Protein backbone atom coordinates (compact mmCIF):
# COMPACT_ATOMS: atom_id res chain seq x y z
CA UNK A 1 0.00 0.00 0.00
CA UNK A 2 2.07 2.95 -1.22
CA UNK A 3 1.69 6.27 0.54
CA UNK A 4 2.39 9.68 -0.93
CA UNK A 5 2.36 11.33 2.50
CA UNK A 6 4.35 11.06 5.72
CA UNK A 7 1.64 8.70 7.09
CA UNK A 8 2.57 5.02 7.01
CA UNK A 9 -0.50 2.75 6.81
CA UNK A 10 -0.41 -0.82 8.15
CA UNK A 11 -3.23 -2.85 6.58
CA UNK A 12 -5.12 -4.82 9.23
CA UNK A 13 -7.90 -6.45 7.15
CA UNK A 14 -10.61 -6.35 9.79
CA UNK A 15 -12.15 -3.78 12.11
CA UNK A 16 -11.87 -5.90 15.24
CA UNK A 17 -8.22 -6.78 14.60
CA UNK A 18 -7.47 -3.11 13.89
CA UNK A 19 -9.07 -1.89 17.13
CA UNK A 20 -7.62 -4.71 19.24
CA UNK A 21 -4.11 -4.10 17.90
CA UNK A 22 -4.41 -0.36 18.54
CA UNK A 23 -5.73 -0.99 22.06
CA UNK A 24 -2.97 -3.51 22.84
CA UNK A 25 -0.28 -1.12 21.64
CA UNK A 26 -1.59 1.57 23.97
CA UNK A 27 -2.45 -0.53 27.03
CA UNK A 28 0.49 -2.96 27.00
CA UNK A 29 3.26 -0.92 25.39
CA UNK A 30 2.31 2.74 25.86
CA UNK A 31 2.26 3.37 22.10
CA UNK A 32 -0.63 5.33 20.56
CA UNK A 33 -1.40 4.39 16.96
CA UNK A 34 -4.51 5.69 15.23
CA UNK A 35 -6.88 2.91 14.05
CA UNK A 36 -8.84 3.72 10.89
CA UNK A 37 -11.99 1.68 10.31
CA UNK A 38 -15.11 1.83 8.15
CA UNK A 39 -16.67 4.25 7.14
CA UNK A 40 -13.40 6.21 6.87
CA UNK A 41 -12.02 3.39 4.69
CA UNK A 42 -13.80 0.58 2.78
CA UNK A 43 -14.52 -2.67 4.62
CA UNK A 44 -11.54 -4.99 4.47
CA UNK A 45 -9.02 -2.16 4.20
CA UNK A 46 -8.92 -1.21 7.89
CA UNK A 47 -5.52 0.05 8.93
CA UNK A 48 -3.30 1.52 11.58
CA UNK A 49 -1.80 4.87 10.63
CA UNK A 50 1.73 5.61 11.79
CA UNK A 51 3.17 9.11 11.60
CA UNK A 52 6.92 8.82 12.12
CA UNK A 53 8.88 12.02 12.61
CA UNK A 54 12.56 12.92 12.97
CA UNK A 55 11.84 13.22 16.71
CA UNK A 56 11.22 9.47 17.00
CA UNK A 57 14.39 7.68 18.07
CA UNK A 58 15.66 4.38 16.70
CA UNK A 59 14.85 2.88 20.11
CA UNK A 60 11.22 4.02 19.87
CA UNK A 61 10.88 2.56 16.38
CA UNK A 62 12.46 -0.72 17.53
CA UNK A 63 10.01 -0.75 20.49
CA UNK A 64 7.06 -0.37 18.09
CA UNK A 65 8.31 -3.15 15.80
CA UNK A 66 8.86 -5.51 18.75
CA UNK A 67 5.40 -4.67 20.15
CA UNK A 68 3.70 -5.37 16.80
CA UNK A 69 5.58 -8.66 16.46
CA UNK A 70 4.49 -9.75 19.93
CA UNK A 71 0.86 -8.75 19.39
CA UNK A 72 0.66 -10.47 16.02
CA UNK A 73 2.37 -13.63 17.29
CA UNK A 74 -0.37 -13.94 19.94
CA UNK A 75 -3.22 -13.13 17.54
CA UNK A 76 -4.61 -16.66 17.32
CA UNK A 77 -7.94 -18.39 17.81
CA UNK A 78 -7.89 -22.06 18.80
CA UNK A 79 -4.31 -22.35 17.59
CA UNK A 80 -4.98 -20.77 14.20
CA UNK A 81 -4.04 -17.29 13.14
CA UNK A 82 -6.88 -14.85 12.61
CA UNK A 83 -6.64 -13.73 9.02
CA UNK A 84 -9.42 -11.92 7.20
CA UNK A 85 -9.10 -11.03 3.57
CA UNK A 86 -10.97 -8.14 1.99
CA UNK A 87 -12.89 -10.75 -0.03
CA UNK A 88 -14.31 -12.27 3.18
CA UNK A 89 -16.21 -9.03 3.80
CA UNK A 90 -17.70 -9.10 0.32
CA UNK A 91 -18.93 -12.65 0.94
CA UNK A 92 -20.27 -11.69 4.37
CA UNK A 93 -18.16 -14.20 6.29
CA UNK A 94 -15.91 -13.05 9.13
Structural overview:
- With 94 residues, this protein is of the alpha+beta class.
- It has a single domain (8-91), classed as Aspartate Aminotransferase, domain 1, CATH 3.90.1150.10.
- Helix content is 39%, strand content 16%.
- The protein has three helices and five strands; from the N terminus they run E-H-E-E-H-E-E-H.
- The protein has helices spanning 15-29, 58-73, 86-91, and strands spanning 8-11, 34-36, 47-50, 76-77, 80-81.
- It has a three-stranded antiparallel sheet with strand order 1-3-2, with helices on one face. Strands 4-5 form a two-stranded antiparallel sheet.
- Helix 1 (15-29) crosses helix 2.
- The radius of gyration is 14 Å and the shape is globular.
- It starts with 7 loop residues before the first strand and ends with a helix.
- Mean pLDDT is 80; it is low at 76-94.
Amino acid sequence: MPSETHIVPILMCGPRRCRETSDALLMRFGIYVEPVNYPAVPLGTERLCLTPTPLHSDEQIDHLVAALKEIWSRNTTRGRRIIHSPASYERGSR
